[in-house]
Every structure is written in C-alpha cells, then in structure tokens.
C-alpha cells in the first residue's frame, strides 16, 4: 500500500517518496534548468558564439521534460487527479454511477468539446498543422485523413486531458481569476491609450488565439504548475494556524499595499525608463505604477494572512514559472504573479484541474498579447521573446539576475535537504512539528 502525506493545503495525498525527495527534486531541477539556460547556453553558446553549445542546451531540457512528464509521476506514484489530468477509468465510473441529469450534462459537455475540436481541425487546418508542427506535406492531406487525426486527438483530449469530477468548481474559480486579471490589465491599457487599446481585437481571430494559447498553456502548466506545484506542496506541511490574527489583518493589508507602492512601483518605472528612455517614463507614469501596485500588495497580504506557508509555496512555484521568461522582465513579473495564483488554486483538489488552468493561461495570454505586445503599447509594451537565444544585446551583464536566482535556489535546495524529513511519513511533510 502506497503511503500518504498531508500537503500544504492540509489535504491527504498518495505519495511514495519522502518530503525531502519532493522538495530537493523540484528545487534541484529548477537549478538545472537555470544553469542550462544561462551559465551554459548563454555564457558559452551565445556569448561564446558556439552554435553547437546553443543547440546542445536543448538536450538537458528535453531530458528534464521526460523526467517531468514520465519518470517523476511513476517514481512518486502520482495519480492523474493529483496532476490535474483526466482519468478514463474514473470518467467511466462517473458516467456509470452519476444521476441521470448529471450524466447527460456530462455527456453533452464532452460531445460539445469533441465536436468543437474537430470543427476547428477541419476549418482551420493550416493553423492546426502549424501548431502540431506537422511536415509541409500535411498541407495536402485529404479530408478523411484530417478528420481521422482530429477524431483521435479530440478523443484523447476529452477522455485523458480533461478532469470532470471537479470541472464545475475549477472553472468557476478560473472565471473569477480571469475576470479580475482582465479588469486589472484592461484598466491599465485604457488609462494609457483609451479604448483604442482594444482596436486589435478581432472576435474570430481572438477566439482561435484563445484555443491555441489554451493548449500551449495546458502544456506549460503541466510542466510547471502541475509538476513543481505537486512536488512542492508534498514537501511542505500545512501552516499551524493563521499568521496574522483577524483583528490585525486590515492593518497588515494596508501596510503591505503601501510597501508594494514604494518598492514594486519604482522598480517597474525604472525598468520602463531603462528600456525606452527618460521621455517614455515621466513622473505621471510612476504615479500610475503606484496606483496599480497597491492592490498587488494588498491581495498578497490578504492571502498571506490566511495561510502563510501555502502562499509562500505557491509564490515559489510561481517564481519558477516567471523566471523561465527571462530576459523579458515585464513578462517575468506578469507570469510570476499568474503562476502564484495558479499554484495556489492547484493545491486544493476541488480546483486542481489543468483544463481550468489552461483556460486561464490561454484567455489571459491572448488578451494580454493583444493589449501589450504591439508597438502601440508604447512604454508598456512587453517583449514575448524569451530565453538566452532571444537576447537582443548579448552582454555579460545579462547573466547577473539568472546567476543570483541560481545561487538562491541552490541555497534553498541545501536548506530543504537539511530541514525536510527523510523517513517517509504517513501524515507529515517538510516543516511539520515533531511528533
């Protein structure tokens, strides 16, 4: 019988390895990724003008992906549900045992997704072919071959990638998060350049972008939120209690909002000033940065006051996701914040659904790209080109931030090795009080 642990959210999960193994594995793999991308690929490949090293950097990253997708889930005995994936056997039992009304609602939802994916495959074949990276000869495939591929892929998505038992609660949370973040980002765009910010939106094209970005987001969240979120939440025990008493939470939230205003806002303003020049960063922009930093600090402290350890673990997982987007530091800030939110949701079984996370990623990514990825965004333009291969000005100074992050994660890995319990517990995890 496979033992269990109590995760950071306080829920029991099946786990075959120790908390130490979970924590060190996640932190160690992130160190390998950063070391491969920057000290190896950028320093010796890009700066060293070695095409071989630049290409060779893909090899350890590919091995890491195999570990994340295949080896690690088997080694830890993860379930499909613990990774937010669908489970065909559980889906069959759900269809068999559910009340008639719920059964038909579920069948209707599955049919709609299946039909919609096949419709997109048939009507948007050039885009689908490009997304799947099929060879050029696939452009001449006959309709039956395209339909067969669509049926196979759609069946796989409907039965194996979508988790249905928490579909409703997960997507309600996804809609709330998406609405809040769209309101936040849309307000910034409208204040900068008025309703012209939405001129690039074409309903048909935007819908296809959301679907395509949703699948890309699904893969990214499988690699980051599902893997790192799962490993970290199984390594760190739940908090012993709320860190801030209820009567002091309002004051703490206010101080945190002010703290974000005096720290985060100047950082963003100086970053814009460094990228686009003095004229693009007037004092008025700094004032608006202060306004938009206030809710960031307030929301962070609100959740910190509810569950300190859960937010810190979620922030660590979110930071992993954000740092992959170096050297686009605007995108690093955005994706680190989004990754923290998704990791927080992923800790609870009722919202642990990769389809919901993929929807948030796809909807927000497409919307954010339309708002801030064009020249008309001006000083708020965010570069979507990431990784050492896309550094516009290759200089040694680019290594500073990645190396600092690598050193911090190495130190945290050593700390986890020393502090996490080695014997496999049944109900405890890293940081749990001694029994």
Structure write-up:
Helix content is 69%, strand content 1%. The protein is an all-alpha fold and 435 residues long. Strands 1-2 form a two-stranded antiparallel sheet. It is globular and about 60 Å long.
Rounded radius of gyration (Å): 23 Å
Sheet/helix structural class: mainly alpha
**Major sheet summary line:** 2 strands, antiparallel
Q: Unreliable stretches, pLDDT < 50, 5 or more residues?
A: none
Can you tell me the overall shape? globular
Strand runs, count:
2
Please tally the helical runs, counting DSSP H or I stretches of 4 or more residues: 15
Please indicate the percent range of residues in DSSP E strands (runs of 2 or more): under 5%
End-to-end gap: 23 Å
Please state how the strands of the largest beta sheet are arranged side by side: 1-2
Helical content stands at 55-70%
Which whole number gives the mean pLDDT?
Answer: 89
Written as H for each helix and E for each strand, in order along the chain, the element string is EEHHHHHHHHHHHHHHH
């Amino acid at each position: 019988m496979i033992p269990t642990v109590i995760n950071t959210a306080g829920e029991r999960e099946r786990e075959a390895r120790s908390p130490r193994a979970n924590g060190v594995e996640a932190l160690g793999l992130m160190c390998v990724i950063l070391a491969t991308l920057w000290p190896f690929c950028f320093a010796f490949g890009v700066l060293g003008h070695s095409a071989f090293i630049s290409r060779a950097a893909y090899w350890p990253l590919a091995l890491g992906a195999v570990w994340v997708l295949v080896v690690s889930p088997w080694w830890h005995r993860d379930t499909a549900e613990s990774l937010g994936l669908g489970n065909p056997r559980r889906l069959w039992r759900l269809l068999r045992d559910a009340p008639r009304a719920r059964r038909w609602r579920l069948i209707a939802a599955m049919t709609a997704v299946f039909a919609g994916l096949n419709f997109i495959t048939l009507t948007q074949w050039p885009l689908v072919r490009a997304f799947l990276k099929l060879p050029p000869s696939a452009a001449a495939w006959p309709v039956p071959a395209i339909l067969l591929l669509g049926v196979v892929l759609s069946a796989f998505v409907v039965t194996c990638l979508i988790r249905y038992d928490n579909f409703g609660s997960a997507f309600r949370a996804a809609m709330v998060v998406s609405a809040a973040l769209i309101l936040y980002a849309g307000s910034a765009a409208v204040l900068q350049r008025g309703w012209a910010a939405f001129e690039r939106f074409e309903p048909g094209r935007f819908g296809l972008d959301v679907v395509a970005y949703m699948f890309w987001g699904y893969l990214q969240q499988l690699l980051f939120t599902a893997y790192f979120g799962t490993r970290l939440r199984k390594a760190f025990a739940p908090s012993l209690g709320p860190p801030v008493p209820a009567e002091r939470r309002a004051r703490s939230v206010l101080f945190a909002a002010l703290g974000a205003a005096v720290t985060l806002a100047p950082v963003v303003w100086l970053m814009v000033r460094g990228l686009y020049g003095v004229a693009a960063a007037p004092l008025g922009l700094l004032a608006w940065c202060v306004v938009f930093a206030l809710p960031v600090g307030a929301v962070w402290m609100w959740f910190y006051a509810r569950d300190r350890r859960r937010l810190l673990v979620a922030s660590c997982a979110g930071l992993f996701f954000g740092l992959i987007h170096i050297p686009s530091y605007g995108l690093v800030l955005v994706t680190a914040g989004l990754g923290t939110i998704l990791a927080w949701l992923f800790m609870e079984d009722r919202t642990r659904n990769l389809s919901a996370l993929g929807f948030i990623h796809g909807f927000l990514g497409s919307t954010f790209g339309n708002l801030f990825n064009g020249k008309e965004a001006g000083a708020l333009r965010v570069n979507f080109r990431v990784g050492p291969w896309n550094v516009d000005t290759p200089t040694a100074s680019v290594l500073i931030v990645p190396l600092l992050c690598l050193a911090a994660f190495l130190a945290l890995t050593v700390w986890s090795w020393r502090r996490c319990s080695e014997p496999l517990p049944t109900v405890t995890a890293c940081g749990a009080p001694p029994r």
